[in-house]
Amino acid sequence: MDSLDYMPFVHKHLIDHGTLFRRHFCTTALCCPSRVTLWTGKAAHNTNVTNVLPPYGGYPKFVSQGLNDKYLPVWLQESGYNTYYTGKLFNAHSVDNYDSPHAAGWTASDFLLDPFTYWYMNSTYQRNHDAPVSYEGQHSVDVLAEKALGLLDEAFKARKPFFLGLAPVSPHANLWSPSFKDGNHSDLEEIEFSAPVPAERHGKLFEGAKVPRTANFNPDKPSGASWIRKLQKQTQETVDYNDHFYLQRLRTLQSVDEIVDSVVRRLDDLKILDNTYIIYTTDNGYHIGQHRMHPAKQCSFEEDINIPLIIRGPSVPKKSTSNIVTTHTDLAPTLLEIAGISLREDFDGLAIPLTEESLEEATETRHEHVTVEHWGFASNEGQVFESYPRLHMNNTYKALRVISKMYNLHYQVWCNNERELHDLTIDPGQMVNLLHPDEIAPDTIAGAPLDKVVSRLDSLLFVLKTCKAETCIHPWRALHPAGNVESLRDALSPRFDSFYEDRSMKIEFDRCEMGFLLDAEGPQFKDDDFLSTFDPKWHEWT
After folding, report:
1. What whole-number distance in Å separates Cα of residue 349 and Cα of residue 49?
2. CA-to-CA distance for 89 and 101, rounded, in angstroms?
3. In sequence order, which ranges of 391-536 are alpha helices (DSSP H)?
4. CB-facing half-sphere around the CA of 64: CA atoms within 13 A
5. Is residue 324's pLDDT more than 80?
6. What is the DSSP string of 415-447?
7. 236-269 and 140-157 are packed helices; what angle lies between their axes, rounded to 10 degrees?
8. N or C: which end of the chain has fewer CB within 10 A?
9. Where are the alpha helices (DSSP H) in 8-91?
């Protein structure tokens, strides 16, 4: 929603000195599962961390799945790097469980802890193995900014290669509950969500800024499928509230922008800027008003999954833009490659090319698909009405994006087996679900008959929904072991029509669940290389 346009230091220090990846996607549009994917290089169906809270997500689930010694900082330390971190690590990483066990892999850390994580003016941080410390009355991001520079100085003085992770809470909604004051947790439906709280110095910026009025903003006609298609058009009062929410997001992002400036200037003062890679990204995207939805994430529309990725560093092209497809599963492999560490065979992602030559080569050779998945509820971080509750419980789905010079498609299967197909080439706002009976579907799409394209996309998603490692990167090879299909364009060849008409299986769910339960997810692609690793009761592993 144009937030980067309001961040001058990101432009000055990162975009003008690095490469902006315009087709970068998170694979789960929810913070905790997305972070675990970023740290492990694995899709959420392979980490089994699929939500923000137990039993399906959060820090306790990360630990119970054995991931506390199998993620990026541990691998970097094993290869001689010092590792530092401040800010939010995971949801449900709290004042109660921060030491049971401590998060592994960090030379020094200062974690932002629940239940104070999203309370802007009453944060609690916990350094190394010390007890948590309250910063009531101070803005959370300003507290983090000071800690970030302290950790950077500490890393420099150690005279070893280092990794520093910074995770400010902005521009998340502000969360408050009476229970938080005493360090206690609350049920999600009892928590008060409100617009983000900017630092006082930013409180009057950008007056008049509003959510971009794109074709999908509070539209006259419904769109999508499942619960989204049933939403009512928003009233002017709600639109005004959402514009204020958007404005507050822009204001809180100014503190993040200032952190970018202070960190880059400190790196320059230390004379290590030119030998440092800087990666700027986020957990997930966000929607405010698009498709009539209230402020939140967790959907597979572009606003929720197509997120910023900017990389600056040695040999990275400056003032450059790349349109290759990248995802959060690629970030751990990328960081290991930067560090000169051998990539793990169980990565679901592929290292991102970072030189002019390799980026040019990737435009012809890199895969064109993105796997997107979600389980459980969809939250509402804005106003609550009887017609728009705090939680929509039926938000489990599998989706994919396929993007090339010839096509730009979004395909999704909901757990109630409703389907969506959008052609973003002519419908960038994803307003027309070509598979909904109320819409007039074209005879052809992407240069082929509609039903032919749908059969290929369905088969591709059938493979991707429980793929592992190399199959996630090259899923067409699972369907065509001869290696003669690498893209949707290849698969649309008439020679494969009978295969997709007679032999391929249709993706479908048996039922909707709040987490990844394999026996709820319908038929599975039968590849013994990965199917044998799953247990129907995988969600119960501890």
Report:
1. 17
2. 14
3. 450-464, 470-473, 475-479, 488-491, 497-502, 528-531
4. 17
5. yes
6. TT--EEEEETTT-TT----TTSTTS---SEETT
7. 20
8. C
9. 8-10, 31-40, 44-47, 58-64, 72-78
Catalytic residue annotation: 31
Check the CA dihedral 50-54-60-63 and report its sign: negative
Strand partners, 379: 391
Q: Is residue 110 within 8 Å of residue 78, measured between CB atoms? A: no
Q: What is the pLDDT of residues 215-264, one digit of tens each?
A: 999 999 999 999 999 999 999 999 999 999 999 999 999 999 999 999 99
Contact 512/417 with Cβ under 8 angstroms? no
Measure the CA–CA gap between 61 and 68, rounded to whole angstroms: 10
Short-list 388, 400, 384, CA closest to 475? 400
Q: In the structure encoding, which two tokens stand for residue 269, read together? A: 């003062």
Interatomic CA distance for residues 441 and 136, integer angstroms: 56
Beta strands 309-312 and 19-21 are antiparallel
pTM: 0.95
Q: How far is CA 436 from CA 222, 418, 440, in A?
A: 11, 9, 8
Residue 528 pLDDT grade (very low, low, confident, very high; cuts 50, 70, 90): very low
Residue 307 tokens, joined? 């997120």
Residues 446-474: tens digit of each pLDDT: 999 999 999 999 999 999 999 999 999 99
Residues 306, 300: Cα–Cα separation, whole Å = 9
Question: In the structure encoding, which two tokens stand for residue 190, read together?
Answer: 């009892």
Decide: 518 and 536 in contact? Cβ < 8 Å.
yes
Report d(CA 130, CA 95) in Å as an integer: 11
Secondary structure (H, E, C), 53-68: CCCCEHHHHHHHCCCC
3-state secondary structure of 259: helix
Lookup: tokens for 255: 């503190």
DSSP-derived pairing of the beta strands 448-449 and 444-445: antiparallel
